[in-house]
Amino acid sequence: MNPDLKRRLLANKKYIIALGVGLELAIGFLFQNIILVLFFLVLNGVLLYLALNSLEMKCFPKSPLRNPELSVKIAHETLPYLRRGLNEQNAEAIARIIQEIAQVAAVSITDCERQLAYLGAGCDRHHPGDKILTEATREVIRTCHHKIVQTQQELNCPLTDSCNCPLAAAVIVPLVCRGKVVGTFKLYETKDGKMSPDLIRLALGMGQILSLQVELAELDHQANLATVAKLDALQAQINPHFFFNVMNTIIATSRSNPNRTRRLLIHFAEFFRKALKSKGNLISLKEEMEFVNTYLVLEKARFGKKLKIKSEIPHDLLDAEVPRLCIQPLVENAVKHGVTPLLTNGTVLIRVNRIESESGDLELLIEIIDDGMGIEKERLKDVLLPGVGSGNGGGMANVHARLQGLYGEEYGLKIKSEPGEGTTVSMRLPYSRVMEQDVS
Questions:
Q1: Quick one: residue 179, left, alpha or beta (phi over 0 = left, psi -120 to 50 = alpha)?
Q2: Which of 40, 100, 257, 287 lies 20 to 30 Å from 332, alpha-carbon distance?
Q3: Cβ atoms of residues 235 and 402 within 8 Å
Q4: 236-268, pLDDT tens digit by residue?
């Protein structure tokens, strides 16, 4: 009901009651009976108080101290912390949010062995990292059922004898992930007696929400591990491919020019030293171009003046972050399947620019352009599909899959090609800088 309507209804009922009292008093004075008048005054005073109190309770019921909106607010505030995992640092932030919003005496969060966070009233000897003390908490972990502790004796904290602990009651709720207890969530009161029903409902609701968030965090973690494993597997496919191609190049030059072969072997060893030393999927553009340049030194040793290389890369973009070995396979495709089959000389251009996306975000646009053989139209539509032969699609499909794995389905390679005119392979990346990398 509308609050204004409630107020008008209550006011009208007050007037009706007041009118009734006035009529009763008029009757008493009419019969000139003082006792009857006093009787009416006392009776109607009591009735008026009870009626008004009842009407106000019906029209304006008191909001419970703890309601479902609290759980929603707590869930919203704690989600960013729980998605990072259940540990001491995150548990303390979660406990602080719950205590401030719910206004409870104390909050505790544990894993299955030790306390992760404790805030509020109680003994100052409760610290993160301490072993679980109460049997009630261990019982909840064993049984996977919540427990309501009504008295200080039932709480039975081992530290009660050594400090004046005010905690007297608690509700303990298990935190469950994939059917297995991974910790507990506890709310405390400081007075003996039964826990209030609203506090129990809040604890049970929060236990379910926190359990769900812990499970989501675990799913996120497993998904990240799967993504990293997939990227590493794709990365591993490139290295042997590059290794054997370079070895063939070195073998081809070893008969005609041993000194050049020696220098090429030094470049080759340096390349793989950096590749093995590099950790993670993301490196600076400067590092990636060092891979590319080493590869091109080895390839130019084989093809000589037939292969021309150009690059248009602004110096201030060398600290941009790119996936490791995202450019080298594309250059290799341009060299081996675009330029070298030509009877004449060919050129490969590597061009990098900073652009603005449709949403206004900065992005890195990398283009590998050759004036070589091009790709037939019937093959072009399938060239980025995995497993489409070992020709043009091998390295490009690999890079395409890694880009989408790192940044999402909207990212990946774009290819424009005309048979006999050449090919342009481009990729967009979210622009970010590797600040700690020396790119001078």
A1: left
A2: 257
A3: yes
A4: 555 565 677 677 777 877 777 788 788 888 877
Locate 365 and state its tokens.
């646009």
Residue 219 in 3-state DSSP? Answer: helix
DSSP conformational letter for 132: P
User: What average pLDDT does the chain have?
Assistant: 76
DSSP assignments along 224-285, one per residue = HHHHHHHHHHHHHHHHHHHHHHHHHHHHHHHTT-HHHHHHHHHHHHHHHHHHHH--SSEEEH
CB proximity list for 320: less than 8 A, separation 6 or greater: 284, 285, 352, 354, 364, 429, 431, 432, 433, 434
45: helix, strand or coil: helix
Burial class (CB in 10 A: 0-12, 13-18, 19+), 36: middle
Q: 307-312 and 321-323 as β-strands: parallel, antiparallel, unpaired?
A: unpaired
Alpha helices in 369-425 (DSSP H): 377-380, 393-407
Tokens of 408: 């999402």
Inter-helix orientation angle 258-277/197-254, to 10°: 180
Token pair belonging to 374: 């091009």
Give the C-alpha separation, 84 to 206, whole Å. Answer: 18
The Cα 123–Cα 92 span in angstroms is 17
Question: Over the range 318-353, which residues count as b (16 or more CB within 10 Å of their CB) and which as e?
Answer: bbbbbbbbbbbbbbbbbbbbbbbeeeeebbbbbebe
* Alpha-carbon span 112 to 115, nearest angstrom: 8
- The amino acid sitting at 4 is D
Rounded CA separation 188/167 (Å): 7
